[in-house]
Design brief:
CATH architecture of the largest domain: 2-Layer Sandwich
Distance between the termini: 60 Å
Number of strands: 6
Order of helices and strands: HHHHHHHEHHEHHEEEEHH
Structural class: alpha/beta
Shape: elongated
Number of domains: 2
Number of helices: 13
Length: 299
């Protein structure tokens, strides 16, 4: 393996390696024109095992499993070494959400999303009810978690809050911080989910982050806009850059009964169009910050 490849592995996160593995293993299978069922019969695997590998839903990946798949698919020796290297990273490193302190309070489906968020190069979100998670203050996080998790011990609430606050580190990375554009409904600004003092602090935090971090931009959809493309509900668009150029854009959706990611080109295109239209319709960044400032003085 070249020195460049070895350096890339040293810097790679387990989440990115799982994503890249899933994409490349699926591509190899499709090039071989094999179904998942055929592969699993050949290796005496349960069907869910291959699905977890291809959707990056495995906590760690055995290099031997990757090599076995590469042999079936006829992958070149260099490709086998690279993919096995990805698998090794998932075995030898841990993402922060896998730590004993927080892993038991994170739902399995949300762990998959955390992997996407942590490795995305760009993210665009539309939020209609809450301040986007990456912009929330601790009092705001605590206020929305406590009624949603009635009966949960205080220490577990503390850990849920810690998860939310740790997620925000993607905006402050010294190397390749997340490029984040948040479009929020005016109702988010005016809904006082905490006491008024804390809510003003939340709005001031949004203004501070959007003003001080060049990688963060915020737009507000005012009530006066009327009908707009975000009225079908909130969504998050994620794009990925090197070292995973084959990772396609994805859209993340959640509701009361669950959450999930769609990689289908048609789905992603619809949400990309909706997001672009929202950006064009909503006031610009400075005007939006001025709106947030006005609301903070009114509540």
């Amino acid at each position: 393996m070249t020195e460049v490849a070895e350096s890339a592995f040293e810097a790679a996160t387990p989440a990115l390696c799982r994503l890249q593995l899933g994409v490349e293993l699926r591509q190899l299978r499709l090039q071989k024109k094999m179904t998942g069922a055929e592969v699993c019969r050949h290796l005496s695997w349960a069907g869910s095992k291959l699905t977890r590998l291809e959707t990056a839903d495995s906590g760690s990946v055995e290099p031997a499993d990757v090599i076995a798949l590469c042999h079936i698919y006829g992958a070149a020796p260099e490709k086998q070494r690279v993919l096995a290297g990805y698998a090794t990273v998932t075995k030898t490193k841990k993402d922060w959400w896998q730590s004993p302190e927080v892993r038991d309070v994170i739902q399995p489906g949300f762990k998959a999303y955390l992997g996407l968020e942590a490795t995305a190069e760009k993210m665009g979100c539309y939020e209609a009810e809450f301040v986007p998670g990456l912009l929330q203050t601790e009092p705001y996080v605590r206020a929305i978690h406590q009624p949603a998790h009635t009966g949960l011990p205080g220490d577990q609430i503390d850990r849920l809050v810690a998860v939310r606050m740790t997620r925000q580190e993607v905006l402050h990375r010294k190397v390749d911080p997340l490029d984040f554009v948040a479009i929020i409904n005016e109702a988010v600004l005016r809904r006082v989910v905490v006491d008024r003092t804390a809510m003003r602090g939340q709005l001031e935090h949004i203004m501070e982050i959007a003003s001080s971090l060049p990688n963060v931009k915020v737009q507000v959809v005012p009530f006066s806009l009327g009908y707009h493309p975000g009225m079908n509900g909130p969504f998050i668009l994620l794009r990925f850059g090197p070292p995973g150029p084959s990772l396609r854009p994805m859209v993340y959706l959640e509701n009361l009964v669950g959450a999930g990611v769609s990689r289908r080109d048609d789905d992603v295109k619809k949400y990309e169009t909706a997001f672009s239209e929202l950006q064009a319709l909503a006031p610009g960044y400075q005007e939006s910050l001025s709106m947030i400032h006005r609301v903070s003085k009114e509540i």
